[in-house]
Amino acid sequence: MSKKAKVLSDETKLERRGLLLVLSSPSGAGKTTISRQLLARDQNLTMSVSATTRPMRPGEIEGIDYYFVEPTEFNLMINRRELMEYAKVFDNYYGTPISAVEKALRIGKDVIFDIDWQGSQQIAERAREDLVSIFILPPSTAELDRRLQNRAQDTEKVVSARMAKAPSEMSHYAEYDFIVVNYNVEESVAQVEAIIAAERLRRHRMIGLTDFVKRLQEGY
Amino acid sequence: MSKKAKVLSDETKLERRGLLLVLSSPSGAGKTTISRQLLARDQNLTMSVSATTRPMRPGEIEGIDYYFVEPTEFNLMINRRELMEYAKVFDNYYGTPISAVEKALRIGKDVIFDIDWQGSQQIAERAREDLVSIFILPPSTAELDRRLQNRAQDTEKVVSARMAKAPSEMSHYAEYDFIVVNYNVEESVAQVEAIIAAERLRRHRMIGLTDFVKRLQEGY
User: Fold this and answer.
1) Residue B173 touches partner A, C-beta closer than 8 Å
2) Is pLDDT at B173 greater than 80 in this prediction?
3) B21 has a pLDDT exceeding 70
4) How confident is the model at residue A199 (pLDDT cuts 50, 70, 90)?
5) Beta-strand pair A20-24/A92-97
6) I want to staple B198 with a disulfide (CB 3.0 to 4.6 A). Which of A44, A130, A148, A195 is the partner?
7) Cα(B131)–Cα(B125) distance, rounded to whole angstroms?
8) What's the ipTM?
9) A184: domain range?
10) What part of B 88-147 touches A (C-beta under 8 Å)?
């Protein structure tokens, strides 16, 4: 089949720019569980892997969960402007290496970011048109507490610190495009999937639309 | 159960403002079929019924398909500012009575508008924050022609007029939020449903969100 015939066939699908999907929430609201299910169900999504100075937790894998780096190395990454965004959370630094995101977008993936409001604001400054931001809220504080307690890997002190930080984290909900209240994981995953499906259909993300319409207007 | 207990229960769902969902396309791209399937599948949607001066087609019902009015009456509606938008298409006038839209929004419905770019622009001027606009494109001109020919109620002359008008109608695609290329109806309906589901989760449409977050911050 010639290239021209392919372009004009009914099966031509428009290409589009990748999304930068930011999911933020207070710790324990379910963001990580939701992200994992999204990734398992949609081959077009990939997780942005952050660099962090915090110690590895049991079960975590270098390069999958995080790039674990020393504070000195993290500082170098900041100075070399290799980070798309970074923030200090609970005495540790977290940041997104630009190179990994660009690589994912080049091969047509949408990238999920599990970052907080500080990171979301920095991405908005750099790439507002590519950004889709979702804030996940717990249905109640009691439920947030219960979920944090059930997370076996954290000490009581860490759980308390996270609970104490929830109110100030939640104060940033109004900076996000969408709100998902996580009553149950399945419903929340479906809601985020609908947001992704819709945002993929945004006109400003479509590549080749002008040519496509021009051909229709010319009677092809 | 007391009112307070109800407010604080896990089952509390946030209320939201209704959507004004505009679907536009050249005649024959499938907009009417898609609208009907959406309405059949989602009780929360209702169709905006337009007033028109064009003659009733076989099978159409007054007050369901259109409010069929005389040109003099339509002119009065314009002068009384009773129309949300109106436009002249193929020598006939079409317009949306404000009262019907407001009634639907009051009872918590989202309203679908089967109108063209002129109407969409007028709604954008009045209610941009409530508007979600989708332009539906045919996969090819041949397919558009085939669909118009199969629409038995139109004369050959009307079909030709609609085909001739398609290029100029399509030139307005860039004024819309979303683009759906109607390769097949089922897929297109699913895409529009995803857009509706996502737009219902937009932060700016949620009512009571500030209070909801305040309660979470206070530890409820």
Assistant:
1) yes
2) yes
3) yes
4) very high
5) unpaired
6) A195
7) 10
8) 0.84
9) 20-48+108-199
10) 135, 137-144
B52: number of Cβ within 10 Å: 20
Q: Which of residues 184-213 of A touch B (CB under 8 A)?
A: 191, 193-195, 197-199, 201-203, 206, 209, 212-213
Are B201 and A217 inside 8 Å of each other by CB? no
Where do runs of H (alpha helix) occur along A44-110?
Answer: 71-79, 98-106
Tell me, yes or no, if A170 comes closer than 8 A to chain B by beta carbon. yes
Q: Which of B143, B166, B206 is closest, CB to CB, to A179?
A: B206
pLDDT digits (tens, 9 = 90+) for A35-79: 999 999 999 999 999 999 999 999 999 998 899 999 999 999 999
Task: Specify if B100 maps to a domain.
Answer: no
Question: Is position B204 within any domain?
Answer: no
A121 phi and psi angles, rounded to 5 deg: -65, -40
Asked whether residue B218 is assigned to any structural domain, the reply reads no
Nearest Cα of chain B lies from the Cα of A170 at a distance, in angstroms, of: 7
* Cβ of residue B64 closer than 8 Å to a chain A Cβ: no
Q: Which residues pair with B66 in a beta bridge?
A: B50, B62
For residue A107, count other CB atoms closer than 10 A to its CB.
8
Number of independent structural domains in chain B: 1
Specify the residue for token string 């031509």.
A12
Whether the pLDDT of residue B153 is over 80: the answer is: no
Helix (H, G, I), strand (E, B) or coil at A188: helix
Residue B3 lies in a domain: no
Q: What is the pLDDT of residue B181?
A: 96
CA distances from A107 to A18, A44, A54, A111, A113 (A): 9, 10, 30, 11, 17
pLDDT in tens, A120-172: 999 999 889 999 999 999 999 888 888 888 876 678 888 888 888 889 889 99
